[in-house]
Design brief:
- With 118 residues, the protein is mainly alpha-helical.
- Helix content is 66%, strand content 11%.
- The chain is built from 8 helices and 2 strands.
- A two-stranded antiparallel sheet has the order 1-2.
- The longest helix has 13 residues.
- It is globular.
């Protein structure tokens, strides 16, 4: 839900709202808004709808399902991805060796990355 937090913060700042003002507008506390933005708390469905209505954005955008990607031009194999996820994949493809290692053994590569950044 970190993507939700980042997008919520961006929407709030673009609207020149404080966390307290946003909280008042959607009937939650400033602390709740802060937690949503940090990704340590997930808003209820009702609160997500309130946020969506307030900022006039789609729920799919808030949760990161804003781009529909179709595999092999067949909608049966389509998935929704965020623009950030697509950008990550595009960047990975520029580094062919790393990209191929991730494709060959994604779990192992992610374990190595996780170990390296800890």
């Amino acid at each position: 839900m970190l993507l939700l937090g980042r997008r919520l913060k961006e929407l709030r700042k673009n609207s020149k709202m404080t966390q307290k003002e946003l909280g008042s507008a959607i009937n939650v506390t400033k602390v709740s808004v802060c937690c949503y933005e940090k990704g340590t708390r997930v808003p209820s469905l009702e609160t997500l709808i309130d946020i969506s209505n307030l900022f006039k954005v789609n729920l799919d955008y808030l949760i990161g399902n804003d781009t529909y990607v179709v595999s092999d031009n067949n909608k049966l194999y389509g998935i929704k991805m965020s623009n950030e996820e697509i950008a990550l994949i595009k960047e990975l493809r520029k580094h062919n060796d790393i990209y191929m290692k991730l494709i060959d053994n994604p779990q192992r590569m992610l374990e190595l990355i996780d170990k390296k950044i800890r």
